[in-house]
């Protein structure tokens, strides 16, 4: 048994190959299934739309034919009495002679189900067809009479095609001559529509099969590439210890997740909300266009304005992801530039003050306080309705403090009771400060909000030489 286990035990290269290929194979299968389902759904919607359009065109054609026929006998019918047999005979002769195409003709039934006119199916004339159904049990005569009694309408059923003698689907349109108790109608076969729809579905299946082949070929090529790469890595990196490889991999994953989380938090309160506003404006404009509302252009202009704001927000976030001044000049100059940009962009009066630190902040503290300032100014711009903001940063015996105050409307009372944990922006600030073992306080009232972030003395770098202090000391 032990020998059997050893024989089937996978080596490092095989494990690496399986680890890389199994997710790829599963992803390829999932993608194939999703592509097939979505392709079929979209294609079916398009085919149904096409079928509806073709049948609507056939119905419009039928209506035109019947309108022409009605014009041909309306004067006779209008002058005739309900029991005028001579007029009835003249109308039946007119309708019997009105043939079009290979299969087109007009038929007449009375309300009792007797056939009076059927030029291409003369075997029907003079017989009662009450209760007649097609091959699928669909009622024909009774439904045509019912439609005629109610004024007219369309009906679809299976009927023998005169040109071929085979059964095919037919759409008819009938009207009622109430004085004579007649059903007058005509029909058109839609086997061409059925064939067109079937051909479209066949093309869809062909495209889906071709897509499966493409995905299979790409997956196979990827598997070959993974196998070759894994073999190469196995040969070159076999001497590396598994522990070091795992440790390095974990460090990379941690760094990636940390960066993704930071970027996601930055994007959430910015572009996401603007784009939601754009989508809402566009949806509103579409609905207004559908009903012919003249305010649609105003809504579109508002959406374009929001979109321009999103573009500016992307540029701002791209610039704010890592401002050069933070590394080159320190926290004070970086916050000053942030405050000036905020004031110029929003029109809100922004005051900035600082005291040059005797001891400089380390990188973690600088980044955290800078991000807190960014979050706070973002909240002021979007929610506070303030006309003035003040930013103050300084070092002291307990560490360093950043204070941001505005004269806005303050936080919601329920939100303020739960601060700083309520609200994604406030949680972001709190998380950043807590990572440094610092504290975050939020004081809010109807006259404004004050946010104070403190980092402990452990995040202040040791004093530098006096000469260096005079030249380099900064926040």
Q: How large is the radius of gyration?
A: 40 Å
What is the succession of H and E elements? HHHEEHEEEHHHHHEHEEHHEEH
Helix content: 55-70%
Main pleated-sheet profile: 5 strands, antiparallel
Total DSSP helices = 13
- What spatial order of strands do you see in the largest sheet? 2-1-5-4-3
Strand content: 15-25%
Summary tags:
475 residues, alpha+beta, 5-stranded antiparallel β-sheet, 5-stranded mixed β-sheet, 10 strands, 60% helix, elongated, disordered C terminus
Can you walk through the features of this model?
The chain has 475 residues and is an alpha+beta fold. Helix content is 60%, strand content 16%. It has 13 helices and ten strands. It has helices at residues 2-7, 12-79, 85-96, 141-149, 191-237, 242-290, 296-320, 324-328, 331-346, 363-384, 413-418, 424-435, 466-472; strands spanning 106-110, 115-117, 152-160, 167-177, 182-189, 349-354, 388-396, 399-406, 439-445, 448-456. A five-stranded antiparallel β-sheet has the order 2-1-5-4-3. A five-stranded mixed β-sheet has the order 6-7-8-10-9, with helices on one face. Helix 2 packs antiparallel against helix 3 (85-96) and helix 6 runs antiparallel to helix 7 (296-320). The radius of gyration is 40 Å and the shape is elongated. The two termini are 68 Å apart. The model is unreliable at 416-422 and 466-474 (pLDDT under 50).
